[in-house]
């Protein structure tokens, strides 16, 4: 009797597993769990009843941001480091560059409901220490050669994201995560966005524009709006205005009126994301026109009228 029950249970589990696999859009991806989500459980007690019928509407998901990184090391080194208990960093997901034996494997290293150590000192809008409110995805990419570490950013030899399948798989993961946790497009960010000057990943060659155009992922400007600001309201080297606009979009930057190192770092981070043709950290009319277009689209900033 016990053997029959066990066999039926095994058959049921297998059927459920196969059904779930059929629902996947990309069927040659394997998600490898290094842990699993846990549902909150309450301690039963004879001292009280737990009333869950009066839930407050004043809440949202812990997972407010999605942060993208490059690994800077190989697949094997990445997995070895993240499984090392003495290594002071982790991530929720890791996307390798290429499939293994024809099958793509995505590694889930930390459950979504746990805090991974991927953001470090970071901030976006009014939020800081984003480990507590974000999901991190590591993407296999070497960044730039170690010999280029001391070179200006635009002189470094950045490695491209040349695997189309890697980006397709990454897009699939991002879409699942953002749908599940209702993460807004303008909260899909690079490590460099939330830690300007300290971090540079995923780098200027990361295909932000392609993700937006091909998969409707992330924030991006509208060309017509950029052209409007470029033509009718070009930036006039007002540094305080530039700093205020960057802060309004989300970057951590004080409004000092001085083009200091902090400002250069933030401008460079913005440019790597939205103006990868130029990411030296020095703003120009094109940089600010793209910033103005993003503010109009995602921060509801009213478009100024054309001066007579």
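-> sequence recovered:
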């Amino acid at each position: 009797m016990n053997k029959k029950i066990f066999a039926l249970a095994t058959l049921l589990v297998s059927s459920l597993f196969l059904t779930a696999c059929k629902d996947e859009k990309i069927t040659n991806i394997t998600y490898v769990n290094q842990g699993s989500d846990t549902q909150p459980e309450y301690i039963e007690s004879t001292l009280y009843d737990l009333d869950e019928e009066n839930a407050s509407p004043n809440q949202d998901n812990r997972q407010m941001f999605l942060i993208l990184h490059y690994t800077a090391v190989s697949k094997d080194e990445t997995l070895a480091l993240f499984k090392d208990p003495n290594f002071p960093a982790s991530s929720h997901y890791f996307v390798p560059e290429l499939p293994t034996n024809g099958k793509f494997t995505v590694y889930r290293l930390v459950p979504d409901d746990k805090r991974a150590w991927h953001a470090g000192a970071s901030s976006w809008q009014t939020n800081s220490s984003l480990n507590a409110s974000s999901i991190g995805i590591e993407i296999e990419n070497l960044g730039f050669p170690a010999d280029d570490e001391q070179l200006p950013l635009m002189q470094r030899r950045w490695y491209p994201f040349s695997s189309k399948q890697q980006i397709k798989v990454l897009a699939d993961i991002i879409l699942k995560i953002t749908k599940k946790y209702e993460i807004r497009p303008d909260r899909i960010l690079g490590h460099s966005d939330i830690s300007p000057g300290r971090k540079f990943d995923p780098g200027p060659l990361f295909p932000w524009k392609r993700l937006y155009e091909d998969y409707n992922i992330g924030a991006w400007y509208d060309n017509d709006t950029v052209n409007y600001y470029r033509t009718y309201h070009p930036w006039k080297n007002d540094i305080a205005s530039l700093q205020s606009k960057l802060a309004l979009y989300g970057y951590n930057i004080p409004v000092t009126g001085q083009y200091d190192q902090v400002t250069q770092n933030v401008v460079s981070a913005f440019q790597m994301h939205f103006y990868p043709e130029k990411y030296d950290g020095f703003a120009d009319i094109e940089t600010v026109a793209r910033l103005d277009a993003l503010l109009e689209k995602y921060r509801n900033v009213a478009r100024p009228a054309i001066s007579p």
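Residues 2-23 form the longest helix (22 residues).
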